[in-house]
Specification:
The protein has 1018 residues and is an alpha/beta fold. It has 37 helices and 31 strands. The strands form eight sheets. Strands 10, 11, 12, 17, 18, 19, 20 and 22 form an eight-stranded mixed beta sheet that branches. A hairpin with a 2-residue loop joins strand 29 and strand 30. Helix 15 runs antiparallel to helix 16 and helix 16 packs across helix 18.
């Protein structure tokens, strides 16, 4: 053993001389010389130096990090031992926790935290649990037992994990000797186990050179290296650059120094604004001739900052490389492969089956058709067959019914065929995925999973597309295959132990979440890195962003599963230790910047104020830094577009427009947003198509004189012309909701069918109006019909059970809705009104033709279905529409042109029967109210409506004429191509399925100071 040489240098200094010494030693003994550096990034930087490449063309492991060196030692000298990864460690811990011997820990599911805790125990040589003394308890005993079981498992299976690797390498070097010449540079306060390895190297090496990061502040640079027992100490570097030496005293009190154009600081509005300011300053440097590879951007929390960088830097046209990894679970391809395993665990839920059927990484299973059919079948989870069969039976019954119109039969047959196809798809898919179910050994789970992927040819990889995306997906797939290989290794350790599918899925997801996919670094571009990666590098221009409290310094001292008192008793890192390391990393980062360093911090995040880092305060107190950046971003294409737009809006010509966008196109886009989408609806961008002759010709043909139209369609146009355009002109239908309970529309249809069937049978048999004598029989019949109808719904939710009880009644719930309906019918019959006709249809398939009604100078042909017609003596009648919701139109809505159904239906029945219509009513049948409410009625009918004079009119014809006038106006709007969004400033109704494609904005009309009429005019 020769004396160790200890060097004290500022971080990053003396590295060239140290490498030169290493090269001379390596020239004498290339296989017996090693250079150990603190980070993989520095290793890459050293290897890429031309002089190093010439000197060591083949020794790819001579320059390494301490963990990689330990791995090489174990691989070279260990016998049958197997190295395992951090992921393997977590899998083993998960299996041990699943044994049932650690109930307190297993309940937490905190494998990651336990792995971290055990790593601390090993690396810091903690005597656990003895070190806790009187603080030890039941939880402590369980942790200690698991820790002992884990170490015993490693020994029993000859495994070495990433922590015990260091200890094993130390033992092997002590037994067999290490490399003759060892050079170690830049390690900051090695942990106890790392010190053991370094001491083992020092004891066996003929030459041992150790360069220690040093500086002017002993509170930060507390490690003096004396634990190495050096024979020679060399101080160097600090006397050559007083400015750099002063940086090492950043956190020691001293008189402020001039930054001399070296340190710049900036506060930005928020994090996105901070990244944009960094991007603009980089563009300024590039414009001044700085090369991209002379610039680096560092963040304390690289993963959180990367999404902003990926969004902003391309906008500024910055060539950058951000090789930091992202979790494998962020890949859509990998999420699909993981979902295959979780689908059975969640009961084959509808949305997950549809997601598999529509995934581009799995075989094409006509997922769009499956989505639509499963929604109509009200499927949320399995069993699928029952609900698909119920939907098919309902359609079969409708197809077989003799009164089903012929025009509807082809559509029913097509839907039945689609249901059959959907059933086969789902059966095949579920049968395939079901092969993964059950308790199996880990090896059997892997075999079943791989077999499924092989049968499906999954994942299906695209052959065309963005090259970067294709390369990334290929890399994701390869990393996933490595995960399966890691599980193969674990399976060999637990060959006979069976686990449920849920545990296999958890292992798979845990491995994927812990696997990071790294991009290939391009060192010729601007480097985006974490702050802790840049110590000891030489970077001409460095940006350090997001310097706020909680991010840097990040002071987390408590160990997992440990109180503050327990952490202190274990003797692990204190708050002072962590603060010292954070200060060192910040100083080392500053020293890596050789010409200029830009520091910045955001003032707020989502309107919540942020506190700048105390490290910024130290810089402001210790130096006189300059301010950098302003509020302008001339190199942002988005900002350029906004400025160009503002200039054009003022009537000026912009000096620049975004690349690929002409001034003419810019003006056109601005006019759309700043002119055509402001104030009243008056342009094609608002659905006003009146200036397109081709469109008007089509509309005139479809909605011209003699058009067949329903009152419902006209009311849709009155409420929202845009919805009419989507439904009635373009023929779009929104996807139905897969609602597990009865929808409002279905509730109304159910009531309609029950009442229709009851009265059709009752009147056809010649029964009298309902009175007290026939009431019991009527109640029996209507409840029997209702029971038959509700049995057609394959629903099993608590809400549906309550719905049925509310409808049919029960001893606990009291009278049902139908019983209350019949009692109200007795009151109506006593007034002289007699129910005469039900579901009176015209212009619909299987019904008489539409009713022709004169409108202005032309005609319309009305189609529809009147729920009910009641008659009075003398050839008069009233029409009634059943309502099961809480809202129904009023007389004022007829006057406003929004409710046309009752007056138009009254006119149609008059033309069909020759009788006189005298009233229109809404029969409310819902919880809390069963009542026939007149919307309009002729005077003198008070007895028919409980003596109320409300909505009594001297002349019912005025209501009809008002409805005809609005019908003419609405048709004129349709024929003129006016289809803007709704015209009032209230919110859109929740039932509208076109909300996601509508540009309606109530504030627009409020700002305009006026309301737009339904036909689009002001």
């Amino acid at each position: 053993m020769s004396p160790a040489v200890l060097y004290r240098n500022l971080p990053g200094e003396g590295l060239d001389a140290f490498i030169a010494e290493f090269r001379r030693s390596a020239a004498r003994d290339p296989f017996g010389t090693v250079l150990i550096l603190p980070t993989s990034r520095i290793v890459r930087e050293v290897y890429r130096r031309p002089a190093m490449a010439e000197a060591l063309p083949v020794l790819t492991e001579s320059i390494t990090t301490l963990p990689r060196f330990a791995r090489r030692v174990v691989l070279d000298h260990a016998g049958g031992e197997t190295l395992i990864s951090a992921s393997d460690t977590r899998l083993i811990l998960a299996r041990l926790l699943a044994s049932g011997r650690y109930p307190l820990l297993a309940a937490t599911g905190a494998v990651e935290e336990l792995a971290t805790l055990f790593e601390v125990f090993i690396m810091r040589k903690v005597d656990y649990p003895a070190a806790l003394g009187d603080l030890a308890g039941g939880k402590t005993a369980e942790i200690a037992a698991l820790f002992e079981a884990y170490l015993r498992f490693l020994d029993d299976h000859d495994l070495v994990d990433e922590s015990t690797l260091i200890a094993r390498a130390s033992d092997l070097i002590a037994e067999t000797g290490g490399p003759p010449a060892v050079y170690v540079y830049g390690l900051f306060e090695p942990m106890p186990l790392e010190r053991d390895l370094l001491l083992a190297l020092r004891e066996t090496a003929e030459e041992f050179h150790y360069s220690l990061p040093s500086g002017a502040d002993p509170a930060v640079f507390a490690d003096d290296g004396e634990w190495l027992r050096p024979g020679l100490r060399i101080d160097g570097g600090s006397e050559h650059d007083p400015r750099r030496l002063s940086l090492t005293a950043l956190f020691a009190r001293h008189e402020p120094l001039e930054a001399l154009g070296y340190i710049y600081v900036a506060e930005r509005r928020d994090r996105p604004d901070e990244v944009r300011a960094i991007a603009q300053e980089i563009r300024n440097l590039l414009a001044d001739g700085v090369r991209p590879d002379e610039i680096a951007v560092a963040f304390p929390d690289f993963a959180s900052a990367l999404p902003s960088v990926e969004e902003v830097f391309p906008d500024f046209g910055i060539p950058y490389s951000a090789p930091g990894g992202r979790p494998l679970t962020a890949s859509p391809l990998i999420r699909t492969l993981l979902d295959l395993v979780s689908v059975p665990l969640r009961g084959y839920r509808r949305q997950e089956i549809v997601a598999l059927a529509t995934s581009p990484y799995l075989p094409d299973l006509d997922g769009c058709m499956l989505d639509l059919i499963s929604r109509e079948a009200r499927i949320r989870s399995g069993p699928w067959d029952d609900r698909l069969d119920a939907l098919r039976r309902a359609l079969d019954d409708e197809l077989a019914a003799p009164d089903t119109p012929e025009p509807l039969r082809p559509g029913l047959e097509a839907k039945i065929a689609a249901i059959d196809a959907a059933r086969e798809i789902v059966r095949e898919l579920i049968a395939e995925v079901a092969t993964l179910e059950g308790r199996k050994t880990l090896s059997e789970h892997l075999t079943a999973y791989r077999s499924l992927l092989e049968r499906w040819g999954a994942p299906i990889m695209p052959v065309e597309g963005d090259p970067g995306l294709l390369e990334g997906e290929a890399r994701d797939r390869e990393e996933f295959w490595k995960i399966l290989t890691a599980l193969d290794r674990l399976a060999r350790l637990f060959p006979d132990e069976e686990i449920p599918l849920a545990e296999f899925s958890s292992l798979l997801r845990h491995l994927a979440a812990g696997t990071r996919v790294y991009r290939r670094p391009n060192l010729g571009l601007v480097q985006v890195v974490g702050v802790r990666e840049i110590a000891h590098l030489e970077i001409p221009y460095l940006f350090i962003g997001d310097l706020v409290e909680g991010v840097m310094p990040r002071l987390t001292t408590r160990l997992p599963f440990s109180t503050d008192a327990e952490t202190r008793r274990l003797g692990t890192r204190t708050g002072e230790d962590i603060l010292r390391e954070e200060r060192y990393q910040f100083i080392a980062a500053l020293l890596s910047a050789r010409r200029r360093v830009y520091l910045s911090w955001p003032a707020a995040e989502d309107a919540a104020p942020l506190v700048r880092s105390v490290f910024i305060d130290a810089v402001l107190e210790g130096f006189h830094p300059e301010i950098w950046g302003d509020g302008e971003f001339p190199d942002s294409r988005l900002a350029t577009a906004r400025r160009a737009g503002a200039t054009l809006a003022r009537g000026d010509v912009p000096s620049r427009v975004p690349p690929g966008l002409s001034a003419r196109e810019t003006i056109r886009r601005l006019n759309i947003e700043n002119y055509h989408r402001y104030g009243g609806y008056d342009s094609p961008y608002d659905g006003v198509l009146e200036e397109d002759p081709a469109i008007l010709a089509v509309l005139s043909e479809r909605f011209g004189d003699g058009v067949v139209i329903s009152p419902t369609a006209l009311e849709t146009y009155a409420d929202c012309p845009f919805r009419f355009y989507m439904e009635r002109v373009l023929g779009f239908e929104p996807l139905p909701e897969a609602d597990p309970d009865l929808t409002a529309q279905e509730r109304g249809s159910l009531i309609h069918r029950i009442v229709y069937r009851f009265y059709s049978d009752w009147t056809s048999e010649g029964n009298p109006p309902i009175d007290e004598t026939c009431y019991p029989e009527a109640l029996r019949r209507i409840l029997e019909i209702a029971s038959d109808e509700v049995d057609g719904f394959l629903l099993d939710t608590p809400a549906w059970a309550a719905e049925k009880e509310h409808l049919l009644g029960s001893p606990s719930a009291g009278r049902g809705l139908l019983e209350r309906f019949l009692q109200h019918e007795m009151e109506i019959a006593a007034s002289g009104l007699l129910p005469r006709a039900f579901e009176v249809s015209f212009g619909l398939p299987g019904a008489p033709g539409p009713v022709e009604i004169p409108i202005g100078d032309g005609t319309i042909r009305l189609r529809g279905r009147v729920d009910r017609v009641d008659v009075l003596p003398g050839g008069r009648f009233i029409i009634t529409d059943y309502k099961t919701g809480s809202y129904h139109p009023r007389l004022s809505d007829i006057a406003a042109g929004k409710a046309l159904q009752l007056p138009l239906y009254l006119l149609a029945v008059e033309k069909l029967t020759g009788m006189e219509g005298v009233a229109g009513t809404y029969y409310v049948i819902r919880r809390g109210e069963v009542r026939n409410r007149p919307v309009f009625r002729a005077a003198g009918l008070e007895d028919c409506f409980s003596g109320s004079r409300r909505n009594s009119l001297d002349e019912v014809r005025e209501v009809v004429e008002t409805a005809l006038s609005w019908t003419e106006r609405h048709l004129a709007g349709i024929r003129a191509g006016r289809f803007p969004p709704r015209s009032d400033t209230g919110s859109c109704p929740g039932y509208c399925g076109f909300r996601t494609v509508c540009r309606f904005n109530p504030l627009r009309l409020l700002v305009a100071g006026k309301e737009v009429t339904p036909d689009g005019a002001d």
